């Protein structure tokens, strides 16, 4: 591995840069971000060695860490252009549209559809952390469609970065992520909005908010620029998850309205097993 | 201060016991919990020096850390019985019903309505932590109704425990807490329920859940025994907060359904100021 090119130098792209630098100090990292300020910051922070809009001919791996709506066209264009020994890996949070878009591409074998389950509520190059990816799950979709000899490069990278690989088909990925990630973000954003709208001009209200509120609303600090495209690309599954969630909330609301607190208790109690499940790790 | 009596030896009562022990090593702590196992654990863990269902005549302060539905009757009964120099402080998450219930009590001056904004998703004596209350906000309602000479005792305790005092009327307290605490718990419980119902028999799904999901669903581990009474006591305000929340979720759902992602973006973006507000601390 000699040269890695990263497009999108925010939280995820930047964290890959830092982790790669640590694992492969000799690798040359070039990169690009269409946000000028982010590009400057990425250089200043030492995330990349060189600014370059396109990967050069000797690039081993191109990592794509842009908002998901950009990925299908960008991936296609890059596949058209890159050398036969270059592998393109995307790191987006939705997979079905992208995989479908590339399915008939003659160079599909040079592409790997990935998704690191890692992040924070912050964004941009300054949010990048060297250990963000350490021991995190990395989901790979349609692994069988990537050329065997290029998979070697990918595995070398993933192993050095301490990623735990999981394999899944794109539809399954998008459905599951809608429930365990995209819905959490919606819930957090709208919770923040509810409190802000109600508590207008009453900033001291947040004084009364304990760690519980901070925890449930943390994701509301996430970037709308990243998250709007995710909700768009995964519309069907997101609507399914959101519909289920609203239904649960309305059931609880109805029980409270009817003063049926035995039912309220049962509804809360049923969530009990999540304690063991969430402590599994 | 010589003797403090604590009724309810779970997360909050137990944490007060530990903090008091540290701040006032010479104070005798007696206590009670109607859950036999919790009472035994509280002794074993050294939270209390003595088991006693009722405070003895020399008790300076009685702390009530039971579920909120028990508090009105329990407080009244204790007020009827205690000596003139004993102050009763409740630590419940709802205040209006309780304060109303005690408003005409001839010994109302010996009562102080308080609420520490502190907690974790765990419960019972084993969840108690010596530093849980350190530097946390402690809300006091109707402070003017507590006798001046007993307030001295209360201030001595609060100061030693490093609590930051805030004053508020009971209705205001309950309304605000519905939005910044009770709604967060509902959101978390129902989010956990949504994912568990959908992902039945697919435990590996939680493998794919990142720190974001863990954060939003953390409060779903809270005790239904504590939380059902809170939702009941604060029914009106909880329904208001929950109604607002469901409305925001439905607005977002509609925008997604209509493919109006400019509106989705705007709705997410509007939550932006919460970043500064939540980082204020």
UniProtKB/TrEMBL annotation, chains A, B:
SUPFAM superfamilies for this protein: 6-phosphogluconate dehydrogenase C-terminal domain-like, NAD(P)-binding Rossmann-fold domains
Record key words, sorted: Oxidoreductase
Short name of one Pfam family: PDH_N
Residues annotated as domain Prephenate/arogenate dehydrogenase: 2-281
UniProt-recorded Gene Ontology molecular function terms: NAD+ binding; prephenate dehydrogenase (NAD+) activity; prephenate dehydrogenase (NADP+) activity
Enzyme Commission no: 1.3.1.12
InterPro entries recorded: 6-PGluconate_DH-like_C_sf, NAD(P)-bd_dom_sf, PDH_C, PDH_N, Preph/Arog_dehydrog, Prephen_DH
GO biological process, alphabetically ordered: tyrosine biosynthetic process
EC main group: oxidoreductase
PANTHER family: PREPHENATE DEHYDROGENASE (PTHR21363), PREPHENATE DEHYDROGENASE [NADP(+)] (PTHR21363:SF0)
Protein name as it appears in the record: Prephenate dehydrogenase
Organism name: Litoribacter ruber
């Amino acid at each position: 591995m000699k040269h890695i090119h990263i497009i999108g130098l925010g939280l995820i792209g930047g964290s890959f840069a830092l982790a790669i630098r640590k694992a492969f100090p000799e690798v040359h990292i070039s990169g690009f971000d269409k946000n000028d300020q982010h590009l400057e910051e990425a250089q200043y922070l030492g995330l990349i060695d060189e600014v370059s809009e396109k990967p050069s001919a000797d690039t081993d791996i191109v990592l794509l860490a842009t908002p998901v709506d950009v990925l299908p066209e960008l991936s296609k264009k890059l596949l058209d252009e890159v050398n036969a020994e270059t592998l393109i890996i995307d790191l987006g949070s939705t997979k079905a549209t992208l995989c479908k878009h590339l399915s008939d591409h003659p160079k599909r074998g040079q592409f790997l559809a990935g998704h690191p389950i890692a992040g924070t509520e912050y964004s941009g190059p300054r949010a990048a952390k060297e250990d963000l990816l350490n021991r995190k799950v990395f989901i790979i979709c349609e692994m069988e469609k990537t050329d065997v000899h290029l998979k070697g490069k990918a595995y070398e990278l993933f192993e050095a970065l301490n990623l735990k690989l999981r394999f899944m088909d794109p539809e399954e990925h998008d459905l599951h992520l809608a429930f365990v990630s995209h819905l959490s973000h919606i819930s957090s954003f709208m919770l923040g909005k509810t409190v802000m709208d109600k508590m207008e001009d009453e900033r001291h209200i947040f004084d009364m908010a304990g760690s519980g509120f901070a925890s449930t609303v943390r994701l509301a600090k996430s970037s709308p620029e990243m998250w709007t495209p995710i909700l768009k690309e995964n519309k069907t599954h997101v609507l399914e998850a959101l519909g289920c969630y609203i239904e649960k909330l309305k059931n609880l609301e109805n029980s409270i309205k009817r003063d049926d607190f035995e039912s309220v208790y049962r509804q809360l109690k049923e969530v009990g097993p999540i304690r063991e499940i969430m402590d599994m790790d």
